[in-house]
Write a structure and sequence with these properties.
- By secondary structure, this protein is an all-alpha fold.
- It is about 85% helix and about 0% strand.
- The protein contains eight helices and no strands.
Length: about 290
Amino acid sequence: MTSALKEILLSMISSALLGFDSMIMSAEDVLTGGLSSWVNVLAIADILKPFAYTVIAICLLIEMAQVAAKVDVMKWEHGLKLGVKMVFSKVCIDVAPSFLEACYLQSTKWITSASAIGLGGITDLGSLVDGNMETLMDQVSGLGNVLGLFASLIIVVIAIKICGLLIQVIAFGRMFEMYVYLAVSPLPCAFFPLGEGSGGNFSRITGKFFKNFAAVCLQGVMMIICMRLFGVIIGNAFTTHMTDALAAGQGEAVAISDLCYTMLLGAIVLVMSVAKCGSWAKGILDAL
């Protein structure tokens, strides 16, 4: 019975760590993915263009009314500014998808370069299960020790799987957010003519839209960096904790427990870091 419980426990730990590996690698694939759905999203943007052209006309009328309210006589310079802004608005709507695509491709290049940094694999926890964890498990003796280890680690194993799932969800959420930005790009571009009422400048709505899209692109780079750092830190923590536990004579059961809790701690920190990458990216761009 003890051997059977050991095999079940080792299988659970192996499943959790290998599953975490798989979900992290899936998140990396999403972050470095191509433009498979880009054309379909562009079709949605094209549907919004006629409405965006109507918005441009409304914004120009509003800007003209604001200029007329501020000056006694409208000069030709005001009309020239409004005409130039109308042309730029039309061009902005037409070239916005291409510009956003260029930003995305550049961010993908950065993400791919970050993925190639020589910091080791994103995660390679499965090999630890097949080697060190299995050796330690074989040395655990006594039904009471195995049952106690089983009871203390079952929640940890489930939590590790949940952390991996959350990271994968965040990665997919970033891609959905990017596609939504692209799909609605004609609308914020249509507000380009709205200025400060003098005929000059452009709308803050358009500028903020492009800045937010750039932040989403930068978010992917930061997420890959966090995953790379996690692979280095958690690997060193695994080795250090196992060596310290055995050197202190705490026993194999304690060493296994410490390794699993260390993994859970690292997984929680990684989830929090990946979740904060969006606000970090926006903070960096807002400071520019």
